[in-house]
TrEMBL record, chains A, B:
This is GntR family transcriptional regulator. InterPro entries: Tscrpt_reg_HTH_GntR, WH-like_DNA-bd_sf, WH_DNA-bd_sf. CDD domains: WHTH_GntR. It comes from the Bacteria. One of its GO terms (molecular function) is DNA binding. It holds the Pfam family GntR.
Length: 213, 213
DNA sequence: TTTTGAAAGTGGTCTGACCACTAATCTTTC
DNA sequence: GAAAGATTAGTGGTCAGACCACTTTCAAAA
């Protein structure tokens, strides 16, 4: 009979230990040697468990310092999922379309919430007039302000896989359109904001920026 | 300067090897000792990489036999998502919201395309009247008909992870609402379809089906 | 007081040694 | 010759010990 693998026990024991001792993100976890002694197993077994958790982004290890519980924002499960989802369904068109789905949903969410009244918009408008304002920053700001971290994470991944359509900095000709979007959001006019946003992004995608390069 | 960790290299080299040599699910992977020699690293390093992949369910190891590429259906990513992240309620909220984003986007896409004229809708209406029509089938049909396979796949994963709100079969009281949705789609009236859809799903989620159980 | 450098502790890696288990092969027995 | 049993090679599972590279600490030297 195959015995259950020890390193899997270690994984769950670690999880219990973290909960019981109320270890919080950023806190240090006992060293590998300590854990090996405490749990009465070899250090290599401990390491197999820790490396598994590290691949998931649940812990961070820093040579010479120790092992630390990772910030939940650094969890890599979604990334790992992405590498497998996008294996077979990596039609570029689907990726772009799905990005757009998340972007418009973000605008919709912002318009429906108090975020539309934040002072962020004014400062965004000012940064827009300055030099070196990257297109991606504009969209990312919207995704962040939507308040849905999962959606933000998915969007970020799609951007990496689908080739970033928001590469490069905002050209003077684009500014009026972007300002219209900001204005519509402040007015909580989702419909207009989304229409203008789609007008902007479709030029970037279809025209390969030819119009504004 | 901290060097990149070798076991991570191994992980990606393994992925490349699997693709290049066209190893398929169920096939055997070279033994740990072979891999160690071929990649010029210690066996323990190989094991750290393999154990990580095993925790994800990407490979299976059988003592005395060897290591095998796992069937994609055995991938444990979703399960891991649940065990490690589900505690945070905000995350669960994000999952539900992101599901909704994809669902409404699907309805929007259908209404804007020729799919709204397909004979599917009539047959769907008929199945709705029959017995044993599972709620999930209804939504999945919409996701499929949207034509965005990536969006469908993301939706499917979110459903597993976030607890399926569309569990159980359609109750008689729900049918009018669902028929309204179908009708609105056929009329390409996305706004009405989405409003009614949200009305339906919000009852399922918030009310925990109490109203219709 | 500041600087330096030695020491202790940590993760990263390798080696070699067992153990438990499987499957193929060989040997014995009928 | 065929079936049953024993042997053996190969595999993953685990452990112990040894280095290395790196960080932090703290006491000694300037």
């Amino acid at each position: 009979m195959n015995q259950p693998k020890r390193y899997l026990n270690i994984v769950s024991e670690m999880r219990d230990m973290i909960r019981e001792q109320n270890i919080r993100p950023g806190d240090r976890i006992p060293s590998e040697r300590e854990l090996a002694e405490k749990l009465a197993v070899g250090r290599s077994t401990i390491r197999e468990a820790l490396r598994s958790l590290e691949l998931l982004g649940l812990i961070e290890t820093r040579r010479g310092e120790g092992t630390f519980l990772a910030d939940p924002r650094k969890h890599r499960l979604v990334e790992l999922l992405a590498t497998f989802i996008l294996q077979d369904t990596k039609t570029l068109e689907d990726v772009r379309e799905t990005m757009c789905i998340h972007e418009t949903a973000a605008i919709q969410a912002i318009c429906a919430s108090d975020a539309s009244k934040l002072p962020v918009w004014e400062s965004l408008r000012e940064r827009l007039d300055g030099h070196e304002f990257i297109r991606e920053d504009f969209v990312r700001e919207l995704m962040v302000l939507s308040g849905n971290r999962l959606s933000l994470k998915i969007w970020f991944l799609l951007k990496q896989y689908g080739g970033n359509p928001y590469d490069g900095e905002v050209m003077p000709e684009e500014r009026p359109l972007l300002k219209n979007i900001l204005h519509a959001i402040e007015q909580q006019d989702a419909e207009t904001a989304i229409r203008d946003f789609k007008a902007w992004s479709s030029v970037l995608i279809k025209g390969e920026n030819a119009q504004w390069q």
